[in-house]
Design brief:
The complex is a heterodimer of chains A (about 180) and B (about 325). Helix content of chain A is about 75%, strand content about 0%. With about 180 residues, chain A is mostly helical. Chain B folds into three domains: about 5-110, no CATH class; about 115-245, Sandwich (Jelly Rolls); about 255-325, Phage tail protein beta-alpha-beta fold, CATH 3.55.50. At the A-B interface, helix 2, helix 4, helix 5, helix 6 and helix 7 of A face helix 1, helix 2, helix 3, helix 4 and strand 4 of B.
């Protein structure tokens, strides 16, 4: 993933050069934070515009840390804490829309796509159900019910570190099972 | 980000999962981020493992609410390992049956109190009767989980609004976690509203304590009937004011009462009541003050009435209704 067109012009700007070398990594980072690859791509593109238009800073300390920090700040500026709520609300609405079908003008997917989606959802449910008990509980509270790591830890009577371990174990098991 | 052809081994997937959890945690440090970048650069297979884990994680996160409902409804499955063990035990005959009893009992004894989760869709109201005699009336778009323990009764409310009528039990305080505050009560009736980062608590009866939780900064407040506390996540400061509990809880009776409040707040409340969402065309409109009583029957009628109270015009939009300021209108 290289922006070949602009490399020549940017070669004298170390931060911009580092951005181009690390662009995919920055997207990977923000996708985890923002919960969406598309949103991350947009933000990282915006970061490029910001970097290209900025005043040159001569001593940037750790340029890698600075790049990631700038990317994160851009996301925080944009979201102002609303991202999570908005994502959850959208999910809510989608769930509601399927329920009230006829009342709302829900976009109905074609029958075969709907069947494939339903089958995939059954696979997701089964995979979560088959997680080891503690990992499953931590995953459900933190990832599905919207509890913070601290709230999950409190509810389960564990340390935050232990919750992180359980959630990571759950993610690994789910990836092995759900991603071919 | 498509290096899926690279073979990914187990330990890389474990590291990838660790990284995703760290990246999504609230206390991620700059040093960790630099370490993450170095890990990705260390080997292309690391990035491939990360992409694979990320894609499954995002799929699960996107499906969270549907998945959570599906899990609540799905019959309990026996995990594969348990099924296998059971097959072996049956083969073992009577002695094995005794072993089952021995193996199961300690789990029952030491199992923590069960967590019950309740959720309402937009516009749905639900009354939950708890085993201790307390009742919780949930407003639309709310999620709570309840644990009735031996030493305390615990409710976690990541999102929503509810009126709590707590059965008095001095030996078991009733705690509600909402963001970085804990609301603590003994026996009383009050409204807790946790939407986005904002929390407000209004007391109708009894005394309610609101304290910072999870290491958050701020003072402890004791609220008495008719008092209301407003605070935002991460802010140590709170605002105390007098409030009419019946006005605050008016969503229960299918009415919204508001006195000189910003249109933006009213719309946010209405959006908890109906599936189709109202958006405001410009931010200035959100600041317009409105007063009135809104009967929550059907959304089209509510929007018609809204246009009588505020200088707005309603237009259909992709996912609901767009309110635009209408200078011609005389509210």
């Amino acid at each position: 993933m290289r922006h070949t067109g602009s490399v020549a012009a940017d070669s004298d700007d170390p931060l911009l050069a580092l951005y181009l070398a690390r662009r995919s990594n920055l997207v990977r980072f923000l996708a985890a934070r923002a919960g969406s690859i598309a949103a991350a791509e947009d933000l990282i593109q915006e970061l490029y515009i910001k970097l290209a238009g900025r005043e040159r800073i001569e001593d940037v300390g750790n340029p890698t840390a600075l790049l990631y920090r700038m990317a994160l700040n851009l996301m925080l500026d944009r979201a102002r804490g609303e991202t999570r709520a908005a994502v959850r609300d959208t999910a809510w609405r989608q769930a509601v829309r399927t329920e009230i079908g006829g009342v709302d003008i829900a976009e109905e997917p074609p029958a075969d796509e709907a069947a494939a989606a339903a089958q995939r959802m059954r696979a997701l449910i089964a995979a979560v159900q088959d997680l080891p008990p503690q990992a499953g509980r931590a995953f459900r509270l933190h990832k599905l019910e919207g509890f913070s790591q601290a709230q999950t830890a409190q509810t389960m009577g564990l340390s935050v570190k232990a919750v992180e371990k359980h959630v990571a174990a759950a993610l690994k098991a789910l990836t092995l099972r759900l991603s071919p | 980000m498509s290096e899926a052809w690279i073979k990914v081994d187990d330990s890389r997937l474990a590291s990838a999962a660790d990284w995703i959890v760290r990246l999504q945690s609230a206390d991620l440090s700059d040093a960790e981020v630099v370490e993450f970048d170095a890990w990705l650069e260390a080997h292309p297979a690391n990035a491939a493992a990360y992409d694979r884990t990320l894609s499954v994680t995002l799929e699960l996160q996107d499906a969270a609410s549907v998945l959570s409902e599906g899990l609540a409804e799905a019959p309990v499955r026996r995990s594969p390992s348990l099924t296998a063990r059971r097959g072996w035990l049956v083969a073992g005959g009577l002695a094995a049956a005794a072993a089952v009893a021995l193996a199961v009992t300690p789990l029952g004894l030491f199992a923590p109190a069960a967590i019950q989760s309740f959720a309402t869709a937009k516009g749905e109201h639900r009354t939950v009767n708890l085993a201790d005699g307390s009742t919780i009336e949930l407003n639309g778009g709310s999620r709570i989980s309840v644990t009735l323990g031996r030493h305390e009764r615990h409710v976690t409310m990541p999102q929503g609004e509810a009126v709590f009528d707590v059965a008095a039990d001095k030996a078991r305080p009733f705690l509600i976690d909402a963001g970085d505050r804990t609301v603590r009560v003994v026996g009383t009736r009050f409204d807790v509203r946790h939407r986005g980062d904002e929390l407000s608590v209004t007391v109708e009866r009894g005394v309610v304590e609101v304290r910072p939780s999870g290491g958050a900064a701020g003072k402890v407040f004791r609220l008495h009937p008719g008092q209301r506390l407003d605070t935002a996540q991460g802010a140590p400061a709170v605002q105390l004011s007098a409030a009419d509990p019946l006005q605050v809880e008016s969503w229960r009776t299918g009415r919204l009462i508001f006195r000189d409040e910003p249109l933006g707040d009213l719309v946010a409340d209405l959006n908890q009541q109906f599936a189709s969402q109202i958006t405001l065309a410009d931010p200035a409109l959100a600041q317009t003050r409105v007063s009135g009583v809104m009967v929550l029957d059907d959304q089209a009628a509510v929007i018609r009435r809204l246009a009588l109270l505020a200088p707005v015009k309603a237009l259909p939009s992709v996912n609901g209704v767009l309110l635009r300021s209408d200078p011609a209108a005389k509210p």
